[in-house]
Amino acid sequence: MTVAVAHHDSPEGHAALRAGIDLARRLGGDLAVLHVLDDDLTGDVEAARRDAGERVGRALEGIGDEVRHTVHIVAAGGDIAQALIDLTTEAGAEMLIIGARRRSPVGKLLMGSVVQRVVLDSPVPVLVVKP
Question: Whose C-alpha in 21, 30, 55, 118 is 20 to 30 A from the C-alpha of 62?
């Protein structure tokens, strides 16, 4: 079984990664770490990709060979939720884990929710974790 994790350098993203590592370890499965670059990048996209790869690498320190893992880094193209769903499918994952923070009802109404879109549109089960 491949478990996909939506990585973001935040408490929510770290909670999702910990949950993904734990689940992949318990199931003897693979881990696909998905990192979507923000569209508001100014400058070199390749530099941003390398920086994201380094951050993911630091987050994965310590898991060693216990869990086979791959890292997928892409630019959002304006739609973070769709990029996560596409990466989940490309990785052949059977589950997606994503971190969420508490938001007020007004905040959800005004800004939408990447987590909500992923939960509703994902072709695989989604586990939502909080930090």
Answer: 118
